[in-house]
Design a protein that fits this description.
Length: 80
Amino acid sequence: MIREFFVGFRKGFKEFGHFVSSIVNFILLLPVYVIGIGLVSVVSKLFRKEFLDLGKKKKKSYWLDNRIGKKKKEDCYRTF
């Protein structure tokens, strides 16, 4: 009887912890999503910036050529 009580008590606390963590995560992550992703989306639409080149044209490849030019071998050793 005591064992059943503690097993149920533990299960109840676990479910309560999951419930509280879901609420806290929602409250904390909602402003991050709205400000971070929503604001960036609105600003990018205003300036007509596209982060992914998903044009309506069918392309063979989405590969973009990197035209940096020729570098010296020594420049490649220190990239930062």
